[in-house]
Amino acid sequence: MKAFSLKTAGPFLLLTFIYFIVGFLTTVNGQCQGPLKVAFLSDAVTMRNSLTTLISFAFFLGYLLNSSRTGRMLNLIGYKRTLIRSLVVMIEGLVFYTASAFCAEYVPDQGVVVNGDFVPFGYFVFLMGSFLMGTAAAMLQVVINPYIAAYPLPGTSAVQRMNFTCAVNSFGTTIAPLFVTGIMFAGVPLDSVTASQLTLPFILMTVCIVVTTMTTRRLALPDIEGTRSASADSAASDSAKETKSVWSFRNLKYGVITIFFYVGTEVSIGNNINLHAMELTSGNTALSPALLATIYWGGFLIGRMVSASMKNVKPRPMLLTVTLGAIVLMIAAMLTENLWLLAAVGLFHSVMWSCIFTLAVDGLGEYTSRASGVFMMGVFGGAVFPVLQGILADWIGSWQFTWTVSLVCEFVILWYGLRGYRK
């Protein structure tokens, strides 16, 4: 067995750092919903919540449209080249974010009327940026997930490596809400924010990702044997032999369905809990939207760090345990309208991703890289369920019982642990 060293751990640490960036920017995108609801949609009435949640929809649409394609790209050109292309797309997304701020500052009165609501062009530019950022996040996760799961880091198991990398990802999601409210909008009251305040932070983030891309290009990232069924030099010979469809694996097929519902409930709480808090606070500061989001994502960080130290816990019983805990907390939070209980669900959500992914690709061998692309298509649930919840909130006039949408997702996850996972 190889001894642990910086050389052997280098690729693992590089991808873990990039996964931190993915978590940070994913949550920045989601946490912009509340401020942009004020900055872009102040004149909207009938569709205000629905239009706000479309920011998440655009982001996760990138997963649906580009994950499978990235899996095929990874299969053909390898991990490093796919990683570089993913970072370039992320830079493009940040450029659109910055452009939306310029639109808000210089052409705020230009826009269109949607169902009686005036929507400025800057909002649509931000939606395009969200789509590109979601595409980049999908591409990066298609690369990172199978690489981390298969990387031969001495003294670790696949689920341990996944949980550690996800913990670092969660550190990014935990600090992102405070970054949005404390730095991007500089502590300005939520009803006074302007989209032009986005300009400098997004320029700085763009520079950071450019530097990361240039650094990554210079570093070695060896391929993992046995995770790709084709490569640039073997694609012809591989196409000559008959191969299975990745959909023929039951555990992957139902894993994709399960991750669709899991990301749906994860993002619904992470992005919409602040909208619910804004409804309850009505001008007072007793219930901080940013603090609630930070507690929720902080629960991910704590849960993943703890689980990363557990060597002998199997993913299936872990998934069942945390899902039952999430269901109990969510029911209590909804009945009492206690958002602190809802934020605590993050602790139980923390290990669900790694458990579901590990179970879904279990035993897939050379199909793992293609399966990763298919698996990431399920992340589109993060686009569907927050928007459904926003539409429901507009319809009933309150967020309280809209959390039933998330509760349904939890029961689907429970089903996968009980019956859906079979190799």
Q: List how many beta strands DSSP finds.
A: 2
Approximate helicity band: over 70%
Quote the beta fraction. Answer: under 5%
Instruction: Quickly name the level 1 CATH class.
Output: Mainly Alpha
The helix-strand sequence is: HHHHEEHHHHHHHHHHHH
Domain module tally: 1
Radius of gyration: 21 Å
Counted by DSSP, the helix tally is 16
Instruction: Please identify which CATH superfamily we are dealing with.
Output: MFS general substrate transporter like domains
State the end-to-end distance: 29 Å
What is the overall pLDDT average?
82
Output the structural class: mainly alpha
Q: What is the name of the CATH architecture?
A: Up-down Bundle
Strand numbers in spatial order across the main sheet: 1-2
Query: In the CATH scheme, what's the topology name?
Result: Growth Hormone, Chain: A
Shape: globular
| Main sheet specs | 2 strands, antiparallel
Residue windows where pLDDT falls under 50 for at least 5 positions: 231-242
